[in-house]
Specification:
374 residues, mainly alpha, Cytochrome Bc1 Complex, Chain D, domain 2, two-stranded antiparallel sheet, 2 strands, binds heme C
Length: 374
């Protein structure tokens, strides 16, 4: 029997955001059959309600960005499972992004974040990066703290959450607590209500299509980077606003020849080893009906296009994973796989537990601010 290798999930595999070459290869060395096909509903995560309530308001509050125009929810939109429906993301005014905005549903389960997996510590650090990164929210944490301290609603919410007076550290605790509430539930897959076609698709997924060797576990990801040969999105290099963002990022990450590269190097930023060029994190496959366009650069519009991409052996790249090869699935089998993927989308997370009432930003300015105590 042909058995697909599976990389075992290991907590803390990516301790540092810039991984040493040794860590990546040792991750591959831990390959085992342990959690292949052990797939069930995503378990809800226990949260501190008061902290999550505070995090919810912060997530939707544009005052967290430099010019008070962008909130987390400008790019991570609840109706789109906290992605944005665009090929490539927007960015802080004056720039544009070079990556597809990922869903935040089940993000608390990830072992490393961003399409290249460069952030491997925790959601507290991811939150800091989103707020302070110039092309994202471009905010100075000290200014943010002073802004939210002026709003009596925050003063009250921070107290209730046991976080003392409004602080940047408190923001970075409360937002991750809110993110933990965003877990999938009630998909046809979880309820045992898949159509016959979707059920056949699941067998292919675990069997001859070989998908489960990377898309494993309850959230359908092994949290590892691979090269599948997804084509470049040339808009990144043609649109000056996107290009300048990518060049700045590449320079900051120490990429050689950053002015001239016309490739998103992916996980290479973590190791600077050529064999990691063009590797991207295996994404979760839950909530796909809400999250298109797909892949790290939004190149694919539909699930049908993705299945046809896999069926013909993926794209061209010297680092392509050997498991990405012609599958020779017939039209019905391809349809079954698409229907299976669709069965992994559950209830939208758009109710009042996930979205706050309108944020009232009208409040009395504090006179004699320098001497005020709160
Ligand atoms: C301007 C659009 C934009 C804003 C605003 C924004 N994000 Fe993001 N977010 C992105 C993009 C794009 C990525 C992927 C970046 C990459 O791969 O390099 C991302 C990635 C993430 C991830 C990692 C998800 C994963 O699975 O890897 C988390 C978590 C996240 N954002 C949370 C937040 C939070 C919390 C805020 C507000 C403090 C926020 N984002 C604001 C666009 C945005
Ligand atoms: C070698 C590991 C591997 C295998 C095998 C694999 N995938 Fe993937 N898959 C990935 C990676 C890595 C990405 C992200 C690529 C990128 O962003 O450029 C991805 C992306 C996807 C996406 C897009 C999700 C999104 O949110 O953008 C879908 C859908 C998908 N795969 C389904 C499948 C199916 C169905 C199969 C089996 C036919 C399969 N994959 C086999 C690693 C794999």
């Amino acid at each position: 029997m042909y058995i697909l290798p599976v990389v075992q999930k290991q907590h803390g595999l990516f301790k540092a955001s810039l991984l040493s070459a040794g860590v990546l290869s040792c991750a591959f060395a831990t390959a085992s059959l342990a959690d292949q096909a052990v797939q069930g509903p995503v378990k809800p995560i226990e949260v501190n309600q008061a902290k999550a309530e505070l995090g919810k308001r912060l997530f939707f509050d544009p005052r967290l960005s430099g010019d008070a125009e962008l909130s987390c929810s400008s790019c991570h939109i609840p109706e789109k499972a906290f992605s944005d429906g665009k090929e490539l993301s927007d960015a802080y005014p004056g720039s544009l992004g070079f990556r597809n905005t990922p869903t935040l549903v089940n993000t608390a389960y990830r072992k490393a974040w961003f399409h290249d997996g460069r952030q491997g510590t925790n959601l507290n650090d991811v939150t800091r990066e989103m707020i302070t990164e110039t092309y994202l929210m471009n905010m100075d944490m000290r200014l943010m703290q002073e802004r939210i301290k002026q709003d009596p609603v925050y003063v009250d919410l921070f107290k209730k959450a046991g976080l003392g007076e409004p602080s940047n550290g408190g923001v970075r605790k409360a937002i991750p607590e809110y993110l933990k509430t965003l877990t999938s539930h009630n998909s046809p897959f979880d309820k045992g209500e898949m159509s016959a076609s979707a059920a056949r698709g699941y067998e292919l997924f675990k069997g001859k299509a070989g998908c489960v060797s990377c898309h494993s576990g309850d959230t359908f990801t092994d949290d590892m980077p691979y090269n599948t040969g997804v084509p470049q999105n040339t808009t990144i290099y043609e649109d000056p606003l996107r290009h300048v963002t990518y060049v700045t990022y590449a320079k900051f990450m120490g990429i050689e020849n950053y002015m001239n590269i016309r490739e998103d190097v992916g996980a290479y930023v973590r190791t600077h080893r050529n064999e990691d060029k063009g590797k991207f994190m295996t994404p979760s496959l839950r909530e796909l009906t809400f999250t298109g366009p797909y892949m790290h650069n939004g190149t694919f519009e539909s699930l049908d296009a993705i299945i046809s991409f896999y069926n013909t052996g993926g794209g061209d790249h010297p680092n392509k994973d050997p498991r990405i090869k012609d599958l020779n699935l017939n039209a019905l089998e391809q349809k079954d796989l698409v229907n299976f993927l669709k069965s992994l989308s559950g209830d939208p997370l758009t109710g009042p537990e996930f979205v706050p009432e309108e944020i009232d930003t009208e409040y009395e300015a504090i006179t004699d601010w320098n001497n005020a105590v709160n």
